[in-house]
Design brief:
alpha/beta, Aspartate Aminotransferase, domain 2, Aspartate Aminotransferase, domain 1, 2 domains, 7-stranded mixed β-sheet, 5-stranded mixed β-sheet, binds pyridoxal-5'-phosphate
């Protein structure tokens, strides 16, 4: 079973998949293979490792680990979530078409609109929670449907299985950016997705100390293509970042349980709080995506957004925290608070931003794994300062 725990349960695979003890020394932890090249056995014969852009054992261990957690065929790790998404987009040739969630991560929007437009990528941005809108956007040239669920910051939930059925009937692949939930809470391949992509920077690494990305595949031809891209484009994850991320995934199950429990407590505090105008968390029965998420995921994650109505109220709150840290990003052990209108979504023109529901009073939390009582007290105190 060492390194190949097959059908063992998630928490066991998180710790063992891809991580057989080192055959030379028995080292229990996969070492950081900090080498650029490998000695040939003899002329014309190598060990399977030739050059570290192409193969690295630390990276390979992480790739096999996350592929196991997503129940995919294989994984390929890249230097960032964006590098992983850019690699996925090479599956779509020039003049072909993609249907994408209109509320995808800002960097994904920028990649499609300001980089891939040069390669004549055609994109339809649709509300993928609306299945008729998805079906209506697919044209004969559609090669890929690109989803996030839930999305940032309003936690729109898309029915992955329903979209996969629509896409497959029309000959398109489905890729899900599963960064917000991690495979512990949602496994899109089980619902018919063909590809999963992650910013490992977030929950998979989980400690806010590495940038990385990974693509998980279900088809042998795609796995070979992503290995070919690692070799040919070279945007690979470093051995050290692979090591950090692999250390992160070992504790994914316990971290996600705690993230989830803390997020539920925070959502309960915010629900019905007199200063909170609107609350966005799929775990609430009132959330429009609640039923779909309950069907397709085993939890609701640790991302919560709420609207205080005005910029002044939001600013007062943001400056009133002691435990929550004011910063972009998410998915680390520490709780973060951010202000989408001036931080993650600042590049979107104001009218468009408002149309997406991202107003000046909107605040987003990434709930960490600190003591729940301390988080609730911090939030209560910050809210008490708001007029
Ligand atoms: C952060 C993020 C990305 C980009 O990942 P990087 O590692 O920052 O390049 C992509 N998708 C989602 C949903 C993210 O949160």
């Amino acid at each position: 079973m060492k390194g190949d725990p097959g059908q063992k349960s998630f928490a066991t695979r998180a710790i063992h998949a891809g991580q057989a003890p080192d055959p030379t020394t028995g080292a229990v932890t996969v070492p950081i293979y900090q080498t650029s090249t490998y000695e040939y056995v003899e002329a014309g014969r190598h060990t399977g490792y030739e050059y570290a852009r192409v193969q690295n054992p630390t990276r390979r261990a992480l790739e096999r680990n996350v592929a196991s957690l997503e129940e995919g065929l294989d994984g390929h790790a890249f230097a960032s979530g964006m590098a992983a998404i850019a690699s996925v987009m090479t599956l779509v040739p020039a003049d072909q078409h993609v249907v994408a969630s209109r509320t995808v991560y800002g960097g994904t929007y920028r990649l499609f609109e300001q980089v891939l437009d040069r390669y004549r990528l055609r994109v339809s941005w649709v509300d993928t929670t609306d299945l008729d809108a998805v079906a209506g956007a697919i044209v004969p040239e559609t090669r890929l449907v690109f989803l996030e669920s839930p999305t940032n910051p309003l936690m729109d939930v898309t029915d992955i299985a329903a979209v996969a059925e629509i896409a497959h009937r029309r000959g398109a692949l489905v890729c899900v950016d599963n960064t917000f939930l991690s495979p512990y809470l949602q496994q899109p391949l089980r619902h018919g997705a063909d590809l999963v992509v992650h910013s490992t920077t977030k929950f998979l690494n989980g400690h806010s100390d590495s940038i990385g990305g990974i693509v998980i595949t279900t088809r042998e031809q795609d796995a070979q293509w992503f290995a070919f891209l690692q070799k040919s484009v070279g945007a690979i994850l470093s051995p050290f970042d692979s090591f950090l991320t692999l250390r992160g995934t070992k504790t994914l199950a316990v971290r996600m349980d705690r993230h989830e429990a803390n997020a539920r407590a925070v959502a309960a505090l915010l629900e019905g709080h007199p200063k909170v105008r609107r609350l966005f968390y799929p775990g609430l029965a009132s959330h429009p995506g609640h039923d779909v998420q309950r069907r397709q995921a085993t939890g609701y994650g640790a991302m919560i957004a709420f609207d205080l109505g005005t910029l002044e109220a939001a600013t007062t709150l943001l400056n009133g925290f002691e435990v929550f840290t004011l910063a972009e990003s998410l998915g680390g052990v520490e709780s973060l608070v951010s202000h989408p209108a001036t931080m993650t979504h600042a590049a979107i023109p104001e009218d468009q931003r408002r149309a997406l529901g991202v107003g000046p009073g909107l605040v987003r939390l990434s709930v960490g794994i600190e003591d729940a009582g301390d988080l609730l007290a911090d939030l209560e105190h910050a809210l008490s300062r708001v007029a």
